[in-house]
Amino acid sequence: MSNSGALIPHQPASWAEVRDLLGDADCAWADIDGWHETTCPDAPPPGCTHLWAWDESASWLLRPDGYGFMLVELRMSSADSRPASGVSVRYEIDHTILMPDGQDGIVQPSSNRFVVVRVVGVESLSFVRGEARESSKRS
Q: Which of 5, 9, 24, 63 is found 20 to 30 A from 124 (Cα to Cα)?
């Protein structure tokens, strides 16, 4: 089953702008120090290729590149599905486990359960959301 939302590109010029856009959203990423789940870090994580962020109404995908940051927001709330700067899209949600429990030598994510949000009709555009945190915010 697909849902309606809006895809909004952002072009933050600095890490301070990234932090402002993400606010208090939960974030997850892997870098040279392992797996992390917290709010947006104070500085770009060293060696990080993807950072995923989420709150109740949106998901973000951040990719640092040599010239700055590419940040895409998926506005998931139906009330916000048609912002002036975005494109209306459909998305699907799949539940997954990022890493199996009990693997020796692997840093385990704290929630271990995630939701993969795939934008329909756009090749290889997926967002990751922590399932446990998402549900705990609603209660």
A: 24
